[in-house]
Amino acid sequence: MENFYRGRRLRSSSALRDMVRETKVSAADLIQPYFVVEIDPNYKKPISSMPGQFQLGLSALMAEVELAVNAGLKSLILFGIPNEKDPVGSGAYAEDGIVQQAIRRIKKKWPELVVVADTCLCEYTSHGHCGLVSSTGEVQNDPTLELLARTALAQAQAGADIIAPSDMMDGRVAAIRQALDANGFIQTPIMSYAVKYASSFYGPFREAAESAPQFGDRKTYQMDPANWREALREAAADVDEGADMLMVKPGLPYLDIIRLVRDNFDLPVAAYQVSGEYSQIKAAGQLGWIDETLVALESLVALKRAGADLILSYFSQDLLKAGHIS
Ligand code: PBG
């Protein structure tokens, strides 16, 4: 009898497979994104390109979060859609901005829930860019930093547990850290969208957040999808500036980058399974071409296997509610 490797021995029963499984996704790893709108507290509008996701008024958001928390949700990230947009994104840093209001409500009711605030201007600017725009249409880096710092501070003052800058301006982690520290928020961590690509997978998000750029694109500030060495430089810069966690975005098409960041840095790594990834799985599931739930679970395991400690995913609440993850 040939003495060959019998890999099937450890696959022969479900209990055995459970024992030798190398990667597990648990509720503690997941962060559910929510879109909160200012219009009306009871507003609840489906996002057509993201079945199962909604734009939610404050009260509707509270109801949605309650169901998720009861199912075991531990963390969420908030995106805001203000009534009024202007060229300087005032709604992002207003004391009563919609995200700040939502943070206060949520933290009051669920002090234990980890509330992440996405820090960016694009949902609040009339031009839809993530920073201030000059008269010639350029996104201005340094003048934007002060507004991002103000936004982060307003979010921290409202009670945000984690500040997550997603704008991709250079120097924003340093500017935010300085503003937080100067105002007594030395304990508020920054989860930087350190390695964020100019991805077409963000399409559905821009419907959800009403944040599509009105002219041009985000390629002068977000990264070229073709680049991996640049990911090391971006992550290193954010570590130097004081980031506490590093995010890679998108997720599944960038597993190599997640692995790269995991192997080169010792901070916790988060992966963002973005809107387009969600929508693809949903659409194929609705057509009956794939099993949506199994594909979603497999994609989350893949992100963890690649090195992500945390995952931002639109599937979080549904997988928890259905008991697929605990
Ligand atoms: C804001 C922001 C975006 C996403 C997260 N924060 C949009 C963008 O950069 O255009 C995308 C998330 C998703 O697609 O799910 N800058």
Please tell me about this protein's structure.
The model has no long low-confidence stretch (mean pLDDT 97). The chain has a single domain (24-321), classed as Aldolase class I (TIM Barrel). A hairpin with a 7-residue loop joins strand 2 (44-46) and strand 3. The strands form two sheets. Strands 1, 2, 3, 4, 5, 8, 9, 10, 11 and 12 form a ten-stranded mixed beta sheet that branches. A two-stranded antiparallel ribbon has the order 6-7. It contains twelve helices and twelve strands. The chain is an alpha/beta fold. Ligand PBG binds next to loops. Ligand PBG binds at residues 118, 120, 122, 130, 166-167, 202, 205, 218, 274-275.
Keywords:
single chain, alpha/beta, TIM Barrel, two-stranded antiparallel ribbon, globular
The helix content, as a percent range, equals 25-40%
User: If helices are DSSP runs of H or I spanning 4 or more residues, what is the number of helices?
Assistant: 12
Element-level helix/strand string: HEEEHEHHEEEHEHEHHEHEHHEH
Whole-number count of domains: 1
CATH superfamily: Aldolase class I
Total strands: the figure is 12
Separation, N- and C-terminal Cα atoms: 44 Å
Mean pLDDT: 97
